[in-house]
Amino acid sequence: MRLGGSLKMKNVNFSEELQWPGSKKFNALAGELSKELKHVFSPWKAAVQVLGFAPGSVIANYHLYITKNDSTISTTNAKVMLTQHLDNHNHSLGHLIVELGSIQFYERTALALPEKQKKSWTFRQGLGLGIGLSLVLTAILATLFPLYRHTCRSNCSPHSIHYNVYENELPVETTNPGPSCSSATNPLPVALQKTILIEESSCSSI
């Protein structure tokens, strides 16, 4: 469940920097308020996201993200819990003085993670997927490459290399023994060094 809330802090002066999420003042005030609200709603195991600040002195708008399944969770009970806490602590959240009449809560039906958490989760998913695919591809290549080498070496075992030598358009076959696979050709007799076409069985060196 997600509950929206707002409250007014009487002892904080508004400045333009509080309008910009990520600024030093915004982060400092949002961090303190989130910490105190999280403590108040700890029975519900609530996470807090400060949405923004508005002048007057400073009005804070925030969301409570509640994952605990509890029948006591409601906007009415949220207001009671916060009000009781403020009554017991001189109307303060830490050093922030809160105006009791300004406390409001409203229910949001959809549970959504804060944007920062969504980006972090999306990044981790993508990174995990990329690493997983890389490992699978590496395993496939590691399996197939030795088979390829074995097959080629089997086809390229020591053998005699046969040359079909064409001289005066008449084929003459000669044989040169080859101890291993090689792209190099063995020399031919000098008498046959004319216009020669060599047909050699192809075999690449690994």
UniProtKB/TrEMBL annotation:
The keyword Translocase does not apply. The chain crosses the membrane at residues 126-148. Keywords: Membrane, Transmembrane, Transmembrane helix. Residues 1-110 form the SEA domain. It comes from the Eukaryota. This is SEA domain-containing protein.
